[in-house]
């Protein structure tokens, strides 16, 4: 009995490897049960499938959030505070230089004590202040792209939270990636086994060392005690849910008579084409022992 069971399971495996079920000889009409209706395929019972070691997997419709594994690095808040202060200071200096230039130009035009040299000095100062604004703005935009996209009040609130120690900013690197089509919806940090949620501010963050990968800027509001700048932790970036089908981890024939399964690229160790167990059983039942032996020899077993 064990020998027959192994033989049947072996033939089942060989049949799955064949390019087409049509290549196996169909059983003679005389071998079909009299009770089988015309065109109806016989099927293995549950007991027969269990005895032969046949496992039928049924795909299940499901949806799950897309997941990207990243490496998180907590940023020093002084860099944000310093660069934001430089941008604000340079903008204020530029406004003052413009006002001084207009004042001197008016005095010079009215002949009220402003010399040409004073006017030229005011113009030079205004140009220098304008250049400082451009440099500070470009530096801030390069290091903090998500903050540039915020409104001024919203950006200031974030800077105030970081300065007060109520929030931490984190750079989440995606090693080997240089582009990210869409920012994730949220992030989960693994801090020594503690799951910590973080808000996604956007794509782009100050570079950490020689890292050349694309990065996502995160805000952590409920950080564990002692968790601060310089810490590195694993980060899971979660995106919008995607719908699909769930299949078992181990390879198994998929019964398309019960559930449809999309054709296309193979999934892990699964065959590129689903297997109809009922049709396979009908083909195997029509083979003699000699034909099964020839089939096994042709397959190299």
Number of helices: 8
Extended strand count? 6
- Please bin the fraction of helical residues: 25-40%
The low-confidence runs, each spanning 5 or more residues with pLDDT under 50, are 1-27, 254-273
The structure class reads alpha+beta
Strand arrangement within the widest β-sheet reads 1-2-5-4-3-6
Biggest sheet details? 6 strands, antiparallel, barrel
Description of the structure:
By secondary structure, the chain is α+β, with helices and mostly antiparallel strands. The chain has 2 domains: 2-59 and 256-298, no CATH class; 68-243, no CATH class. The protein contains 8 helices and 6 strands; from the N terminus they run H-H-E-H-H-H-H-E-E-E-E-E-H-H. It has helices at 2-17, 46-52, 77-110, 116-143, 145-148, 152-163, 277-285, 289-298; strands spanning 60-74, 168-173, 186-191, 194-203, 215-220, 232-246. It has a 6-stranded antiparallel barrel with strand order 1-2-5-4-3-6. Helix 3 runs antiparallel to helix 4 (116-143). The radius of gyration is 35 Å and the shape is elongated. The model is unreliable at 1-27 and 254-273 (pLDDT under 50).
């Amino acid at each position: 009995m064990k020998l027959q069971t192994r033989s049947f399971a072996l033939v089942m495996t060989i049949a799955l490897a064949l390019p087409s079920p049509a290549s196996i000889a169909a059983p003679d009409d005389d071998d079909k049960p009299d009770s089988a209706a015309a065109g109806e395929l016989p099927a293995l019972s549950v007991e027969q499938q269990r005895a032969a070691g046949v496992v039928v997997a049924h795909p299940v419709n499901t949806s799950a959030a897309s997941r990207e594994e990243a490496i998180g690095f907590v940023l020093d808040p002084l860099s944000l505070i310093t660069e934001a202060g430089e941008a604000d200071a340079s903008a204020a200096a530029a406004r003052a230089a413009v006002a001084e230039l207009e004042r001197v130009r008016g005095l010079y035009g009215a002949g009220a004590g402003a010399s040409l040299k004073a006017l030229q000095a005011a113009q030079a100062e205004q140009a220098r202040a304008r250049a400082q604004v451009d440099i500070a703005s470009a530096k801030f935009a390069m290091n903090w792209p998500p903050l540039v996209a915020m409104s001024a009040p919203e950006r200031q609130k974030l800077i105030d939270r970081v300065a007060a120690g109520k929030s931490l900013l984190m750079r989440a690197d995606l090693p080997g990636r240089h582009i990210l089509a869409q920012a994730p919806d949220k992030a989960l940090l693994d801090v020594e086994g503690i799951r910590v949620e973080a808000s996604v501010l956007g794509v782009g963050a100050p570079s950490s060392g020689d890292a050349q990968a694309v990065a996502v800027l995160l805000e952590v509001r409920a950080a564990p005690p002692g968790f601060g700048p310089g810490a590195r932790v694993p980060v899971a970036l979660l995106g919008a849910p995607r719908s699909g089908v769930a299949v078992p981890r181990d390879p198994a024939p998929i019964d398309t008579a019960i559930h449809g399964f999309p054709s296309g690229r193979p999934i892990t160790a699964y065959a590129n084409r689903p297997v109809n167990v009922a049709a396979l059983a009908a083909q195997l039942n029509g083979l003699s022992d000699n034909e099964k032996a020839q089939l096994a020899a042709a397959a190299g077993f």
